[in-house]
Design brief:
homodimer, about 260 residues, alpha+beta, ten-stranded antiparallel sheet, 7 helices, 10 strands, globular
Chain lengths: ~260, ~260
């Protein structure tokens, strides 16, 4: 039996799609009593980690080679979010890859009804140089694991820049609780900090329906960031997080009026 | 069959002890790859909520009467915290009550080994007046649900005040992501903010072995707090969070040197 055949046998035991469930816990909801968008993000990142583990490409395994996964882009389409103690199912698959990135999609449902869809783009970086690595060198089997495209759109590249005269809405220094196992700002904290900059009244008045996010540079412990926000038309806001004047993160958050005010 | 008998029958179907499990997820660990202390706190609060629901005294039920549970004190004894993807069991019981407060204890284990113990004190407040309510009026059956004392110590009342000349280590304005379904600063965020004020090197050098926390006043959205920290002997630090000069929260954090540096 040739090497190729052996690998194919091994791959057959791996599942190209993966799903798991989460109960919406007390600390996963915001003042509305509904799952918060950053907690929904926690779930999809955790699901991605479990699937990667099953595929033999977990972050723990990459760490032994001084490598790790980082998310470079995120797209969210969000319906009505479930209430506390609901059970949420997250289903994921890899839907595409290039030399240095892979696209992973998610469908999130509750009692059979779709709650949200997401697509994410991932790189593998060297944790010493912090530079991307050719994906197919570390993970040659990825091409055999790609599912047909789910139709969930890829994140938009955001080219927004705050106008020259604008001042930051918030200045913030990255703290212990903001960083993750990769010792950089946790991806869902970028999103939380973006929502924080829009303020509580924004959350009370509006339902977040769509997010595009670009994770452009790592922010490390102690990093001093400035957050800029400007409306983009009547139903969207654009956020940029800068460190020393350099764009580290951008998001575009689209909303609808809430039907029931909080 | 008298009312008393009916109630006793109902109570027999309730469980005086309750346990549930949590898988340590990606966002539950800190840079060490181990469960963070605030995430351990998330677990025990969630377990308390599930047990209260089983006993018919959930926060959701109290909300229909303009009431809610609030935590007034916390004591933690912490061993070696489990790694990412471990499964943690949390077991809880009510161990005592007074006119306005109840004591709830927790034992946290992983693969049969004890990870931590905790005791908490809870009040029921009126959400309009924000004042405590006589517990036995809302929850007369509580006396029948109390288990023999577990021996887990009650939290210490902390009387630490920062010295007159000391300046805050951090000033912070409470944001959207800091508040919970009760629209006040989430109890574990007080703890996170305390650890943040001690800084990353503290976390790298030390293992947190014991915490006492006093939740004295609610902090609301937009609240501007100042955090003071001073050593208490060689292996403990005292934290006070103030708003407009008034003590809102105090914690005493006891540590041991880490055996394996991060």
């Amino acid at each position: 039996m040739g090497k190729q055949k052996k690998r194919s046998n091994k791959l057959r035991t791996m599942s190209k799609t993966f799903s798991t469930q989460y109960r919406v816990m007390y600390h996963n909801v915001d003042l509305s009593g509904q799952l918060s968008v950053p907690s929904l993000g926690d779930y999809i990142l955790d699901t991605a980690g479990l699937h990667a583990t099953q595929l033999g490409i977990s972050m723990q395994h990459l760490a032994t080679m001084d490598m790790t996964w980082v998310m470079s882009g995120l797209h969210f389409e969000i319906g009505n979010l479930p209430m506390i103690n609901s059970t949420v199912e997250v289903r994921t698959q890899i839907s595409g890859c290039s030399k240095i990135s892979s696209k992973r999609d998610f469908i999130i449902s509750c009692n059979g009804d779709k709650v949200a869809e997401a697509s994410t783009e991932w790189l593998i970086i060297n944790t010493k140089t912090r530079r991307p690595i050719f994906l197919t060198e570390v993970f040659p089997q990825i091409e055999e694991l790609i599912m047909p495209d789910s139709g969930i759109p890829r994140y938009r590249h955001l080219r927004f820049r705050p106008s020259a005269e604008s001042t930051p809405i918030k200045n913030y220094t990255v703290e212990y609780s903001d960083i993750d196992i990769n010792t950089h700002l946790y991806s869902m904290r970028y999103l939380e900090m973006s929502l924080n900059s829009l303020g509580l009244q924004y959350i009370k008045d509006k339902r977040i329906s769509r997010i595009d996010a670009n994770f452009m540079q790592e922010v490390l412990y102690g990093g001093q960031v400035a957050i800029f926000a400007e409306p983009d038309g009547s139903n969207a806001d654009q956020i940029e997080m800068q460190e020393s004047g350099k764009a580290m993160f951008r998001a575009r958050i689209e909303t609808e009026p809430r039907t029931q005010l909080l």
